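queue> pop job 88
queue> type: inverse folding (structure -> sequence)
queue> payload:
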């Protein structure tokens, strides 16, 4: 029997080729193809407006802004973070010689549980690195209270939180800085790409130096920076994608509505509902499988879906704290992280993107509902 078409967990938002070609011609004419070019500057301006943030600095991906933010804020010692994320979050600490200290998550959101922060603080703690996982906002107010009390910096990994707002305010304005990923798999992409969001012009200047080897001018290097500048082609591509990202988010929203409607009464399957006051971006649609009630384990369902060419993903399994680099840390002890382990062991992210068709959604749902 012929297999049905593959439904992937995501599919990139692509700009119109004709439109892209026009912008490419501009770039070719200008012969300025990277290093803070015309479209780079235009995209920074457009993103500030779209995201309602004061300053943004573009990067080549979503990992280097994490590494650079830690450098810029001169973070050392220990940083409190979550094991329930993509491995880049913790790797950014390791790359800076910082010891990650894992704390457990709140099962209501998948985000770092703020009530666990204080017990993890030691004299070496200098910062907190939470993640708005799946684009669900962290309790930024509570995290700020604790950070202020102990004089800690807060760097949000907001890789999933493009356009997310709480009561009309961008979630990216929380903390000392926030990072974004514009990878192909994200709600908004520049193929590879990312950004750092900051509050003031002085910090933006410093970050711009750091992403350009530390050059302040032709002859002055102010810090051991790196090369993580976005080029003109990707900035132009990003400008075009910004025009269609609202429609893409609305299309994702409609998929979420259909998934929720169909799965609400399936015994043993749970999912997150929208949070009140939050403008969501529907970047992922995780479901959680209670094997006893559903009658099948998460992995049994995952592989059954795969067999039927419905490619969900087990984001975020395995937990970061179980990888060989990190598993020896005291805070990586599974007894310290019961909720994180439970979520990692039960999650499947269903296909979620702007281009899913009615029949695709039905096929995804059929693999779950028809046991
Ligand atoms: N912090 C957090 C919390 C993150 O989630 C991430 C990245 C980062 C930091 C770091 O940001 P970046 O440095 O990556 O900008 C993906 C992405 O590579 C990664 O960006 C993302 N998080 C992570 C959660 O997922 P994979 O290894 O799962 O991607 P891959 O190649 O298996 O693609 C998944 C599916 O997407 C494919 O089955 C099909 C579809 N796809 C993918 C690509 C690349 C396409 O249709 N077209 C494509 O071009 O990591």
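queue> result:
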């Amino acid at each position: 029997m012929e297999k049905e078409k593959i439904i992937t967990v995501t599919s990139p938002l692509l700009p119109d080729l004709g439109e892209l070609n026009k912008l490419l011609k501009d770039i070719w004419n200008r012969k300025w193809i990277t290093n803070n070019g015309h479209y780079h500057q235009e995209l920074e301006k457009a993103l500030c407006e779209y995201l309602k943030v004061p300053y943004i600095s573009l990067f080549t991906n979503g990992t280097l802004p994490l590494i650079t933010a830690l450098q810029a804020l001169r973070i050392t010692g220990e940083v409190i973070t979550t094991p329930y994320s993509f491995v880049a979050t913790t790797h950014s600490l390791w790359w800076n010689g910082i010891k990650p200290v894992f704390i457990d998550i709140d099962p209501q959101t998948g985000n770092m549980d703020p009530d666990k922060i204080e017990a993890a603080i030691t004299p070496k703690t200098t910062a907190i690195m939470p993640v708005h996982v799946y684009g669900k906002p962290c309790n930024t107010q509570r995290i700020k209270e604790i950070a202020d009390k102990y004089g800690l910096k807060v760097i949000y990994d907001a890789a999933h939180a493009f356009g997310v707002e709480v009561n009309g305010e961008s979630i990216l304005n929380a903390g000392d800085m926030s990072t974004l990923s514009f990878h192909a798999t994200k709600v908004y992409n520049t193929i590879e790409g990312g950004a750092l969001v900051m509050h003031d012009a002085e910090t933006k200047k410093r970050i711009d130096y750091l992403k350009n080897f530390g050059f302040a001018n032709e002859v002055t290097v102010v810090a051991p920076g790196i090369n993580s500048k976005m080029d003109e082609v990707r900035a132009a591509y990003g400008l075009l994608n910004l025009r269609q990202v609202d429609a893409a988010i609305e299309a994702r929203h409609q998929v979420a509505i259909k998934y929720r409607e169909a799965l609400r009464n399936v015994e043993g399957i749970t999912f997150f509902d929208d949070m009140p006051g939050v403008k969501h971006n529907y970047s992922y649609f995780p479901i959680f499988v209670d094997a006893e009630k559903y009658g099948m384990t998460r992995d049994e369902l995952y592989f059954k879906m795969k067999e039927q060419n419905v490619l969900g993903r087990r984001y975020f399994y395995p937990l970061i704290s179980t990888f060989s680099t990190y598993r020896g840390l005291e805070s990586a002890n599974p007894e310290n992280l019961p909720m994180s382990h439970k979520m990692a062991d039960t999650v499947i992210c269903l296909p979620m993107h702007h281009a899913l068709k009615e029949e695709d959604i039905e096929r995804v749902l059929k693999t779950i509902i028809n046991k």
